[in-house]
Amino acid sequence: MQMRTAVVGAGVVGLSTAYALLRHGSEVVVYETGAPMAARSAGSSRIFRLAHGDPGLVAYAAAAAGLWADWTHRAGNRLLGQQTVVVTGPIAEEWADAMEDAGADHTFVDEDDLDTAELGLPVEALPGPALIDPAGGVIDAPATGRFLRAAIGNRIRREHIHRIEPHEDWVELHGSNGVHEVDHVVVAAGRGSVDLAAQVDLYLPSQLSHHVRFTFRLKDPDVTPPCWIDDTQSWRDGVTSYQHMAGPGLWTVGLHLPTELEFWERGRAEVIDHSRELALTYIHDTLVGVDDEIVEEVYCDTPTVLRDGVHVSTTGPVTVVWGAHLFKHAPAIGQTLASAAVHGGSPQVPRSE
């Protein structure tokens, strides 16, 4: 008899888990309140990188890279680009050490040897040091979603799951369309995971912040800058950024602001307006070759206290996954959760930063 597994949440982690479960031979249903690949999985692109501050996360990202390559082969089109990633600022040396410990290919450039022009970034000058991750690149988020949805097919159901009742070796799910019995449930519902996890005495960080990123046009549509994670705070104290191509001739900028400027209590509209004003000022003050007209805004809520990493808790037949910046790890997370659900035991993920 096939194992019956439910996945709550059809973001990239939930769909990756369902995909891996199907490949393990499990019977799967995915329950999603809204549209698949929305909320924290929305937008045109994400950055993939091996570079992390912990060797375990570097190794986990390397495992994910192999799975991204497999997905690309099966999808018939490239899901992960080859733009490389440049990391600048104080974290560069720490991350370089972690990559060295994990045996990952990288280049570390000391501040005295840094040539901004050689890095290919859309900025005239930049304090170092810098880390170059040649395995990094841009993930095509919509293409990833299309691939996963096609593979999972009609197993994705539009239904809100509002209660989980675990028993010794099965789970009862209460949803807007009725009650469902399964052998195991994986909760990967973003913000919705908090309440569901609490019902089985698993407690997730509940403090949220607002975040928004903006996409602009490159003045030269033929240039292909590398992805850029800037930790220098050289523009303003307390402000860091991530930047990458979002498509041909498009450049995405996400500013990480001081915590008090992204507080949930400030309200979504106020944070978006302030972030937009700061992003436009940043473009004008710092970047070269980037037009200051916004062509796309992508909003998401994000856990305030979490840094890079994957968090998993299991109680009986219920597994809950959460974390920050999970898109790049999604194939590996799905494989980890599916294997644990099918074969038993606790999912093993690396220590988070």
Give a description of the structure.
- The chain is α/β, with parallel strands linked by helices and about 350 residues long.
- It has two domains: about 5-40 and about 145-205 and about 305-345, 3-Layer(bba) Sandwich (FAD/NAD(P)-binding domain), CATH 3.50.50.60; about 85-135 and about 205-305, 2-Layer Sandwich (D-Amino Acid Oxidase, Chain A, domain 2).
- The protein is built from eight helices and 19 strands.
- It has helices spanning about 10-25, 55-75, 90-100, 115-120, 140-150, 195-200, 270-285, 330-345, and strands spanning about 5-10, 25-30, 45-50, 85-90, 105-110, 130-135, 135-140, 155-160, 160-165, 170-175, 180, 185, 210-220, 225-230, 240-245, 250-255, 290-305, 310-315, 320-325.
- Strands 5-6-4-14-15-16-13-17 form an eight-stranded mixed β-sheet, sandwiched between helices. A six-stranded mixed β-sheet has the order 8-2-1-12-19-18.
- A hairpin with a 2-residue loop joins strand 15 and strand 16 (about 250-255).
- Helix 1 packs across helix 8.
- The longest helix has 21 residues, at about 55-75.
- The radius of gyration is 20 Å and the shape is globular.
- The mean pLDDT is about 95.
CATH architecture descriptor text of the largest domain: 2-Layer Sandwich
Q: What is the CATH fold-level name of the largest domain?
A: D-Amino Acid Oxidase, Chain A, domain 2
**Which class of the largest domain in CATH terms?**
Alpha Beta
State the total count of DSSP E strands: 19
Chain-averaged pLDDT: 95
